[in-house]
Amino acid sequence: MELIDRLKRVAAEALAKIEVLDSVTALQDYRVSLLGKKGELTGVLRGMGTLSPAARPRVGQLANEVRDQIEVALEARTTALAATELAAKLKQERVDVTLPGRQPYHAHVHPLNRIIEAATEIFLGLGFSVAEGPEIESEYYNFEALNVPPLHPARDMQDSFYLHDGHVLRTQTSPVQVRTMQALSPHYPIRIISPGKVYRRDDDATHSPMFHQIEGLVIDKDISLAHLKSILLMFARQMFGAEREIRLRPSYFPFTEPSAEVDVSCGTCGGLGCRVCKGTGWVEILGCGMVHPSVLSMSGYDPEVVNGFAFGMGIERIAMLKYNVEDLRHFFVNDYRFIRQF
Ligand code: DAH
């Protein structure tokens, strides 16, 4: 029986070949070439059509056996090779679990808020607490109660944004002084600071229409300029460095008498004079003074019984000095290349 011989020969060849093929892909290809539609074994089986009906069952049975044998051999060899291939791959592709992960970008506190936090921390340490007030303010709190009557020329110093209903975007944090005194009078002592946003019609490298201030107010018995100066010196040294000095220059504010502007010794040149301090050795950081008697009495305190001091500083100015930033607008454009440095 020629067919039976051919079947046996195909089977013997196939089983031998399967043992020498050495990859899963090669086995897959071989399987197709043997058992696929145009495969070798399939071709042999096609010859069965020419057999006599009596011979068919025997040949058919043998054909099935041969096919099963080959399938089993293919399966076993595939499983073995797959395991070897996986082991080899695992050996080569080591995963280093100690490798640091990719760092996601962590947001952080804005440099201006860092200054506000640092300043607040310093004043909390000096016995102050934090008070807040509205950014949309009445003219009364922003001006009148601070000794700036309607036609007072000092209103021109702070070109304001007015709302239709007569309110104003506060031009300074000083109205929080008034609100605090009105809420607490006639009780004392008062020791507060008030950080927050203020608004003025200004826009250039050192002025922005929105900026930040920290107001300070102390009301008690027998407060003197010496108290004011020592508090500000402690603040300046904690904020800028223990080697710093301050000086008070006489100035004018409607709500303080006497009034002063405060300079801190230049950190860039140490006081010798340079570009940052315009050759003077000093840079201005804030305004201050002894609370005007009219401001005290308007807010319910008797100037014969208590007095106090107040100060107001610009946060952007402090930040520019501390971080050596030459243009205030950098703080507001939120360019990541700038912001990430802090
Ligand atoms: N409000 C002032 C300004 O915006 C700063 C200031 C000066 C505040 C003297 C004070 C002060 O409390 O006593 O220019």
Features:
single chain; about 350 residues; alpha+beta; BirA Bifunctional Protein, domain 2; 7-stranded mixed β-sheet; about 45% helix; binds 3,4-dihydroxyphenylalanine
Q: How much of the polypeptide forms β-strand, as a percent range?
A: 15-25%
What are the low-pLDDT stretches, counting only 5+ consecutive residues below 50? none
In sequence order, what are the helices and strands, one letter per element? HHHHHEEHHEHEEHEEEHEHHH
What topology, given as strand order, has the largest sheet?
Answer: 1-4-5-9-8-7-6
- What do the pLDDT scores average to? 92
Give the CATH level 1 class of the largest domain.
Answer: Alpha Beta
Helix content: 40-55%
Summed up, the domain count is: 2
* N- to C-terminal distance: 92 Å
By CATH, the architecture of the largest domain is named 2-Layer Sandwich
Number of strands: 9
The CATH homologous superfamily of the largest domain is called Bira Bifunctional Protein, Domain 2
| CATH topology name of the largest domain | BirA Bifunctional Protein, domain 2
SS-based structural class?
A: alpha+beta
Query: What best-fitting shape do the alpha-carbon axes yield?
Result: rod-shaped
Give a verbal description of the structure.
The chain is an alpha+beta fold. The protein has 2 domains: 2-92; 111-339, BirA Bifunctional Protein, domain 2 (2-Layer Sandwich), CATH 3.30.930. The chain has helices spanning 2-20, 24-35, 40-46, 56-92, 111-125, 139-142, 154-157, 175-184, 225-240, 293-298, 315-323, 330-333, 336-339, and strands at residues 129-130, 136-137, 168-169, 190-199, 210-220, 246-253, 256-265, 282-291, 307-314. The strands form 2 sheets. A 7-stranded mixed sheet has the order 1-4-5-9-8-7-6, with helices on both faces. The protein has a two-stranded antiparallel ribbon with strand order 2-3. A hairpin with a 2-residue loop joins β6 and β7. α1 runs antiparallel to α3 and α5 (111-125) crosses α11. The longest helix has 37 residues, at 56-92. The protein is rod-shaped and about 135 Å long. Bound molecules: 3,4-dihydroxyphenylalanine. The site of 3,4-dihydroxyphenylalanine has 11 residues, from β8 and β9.
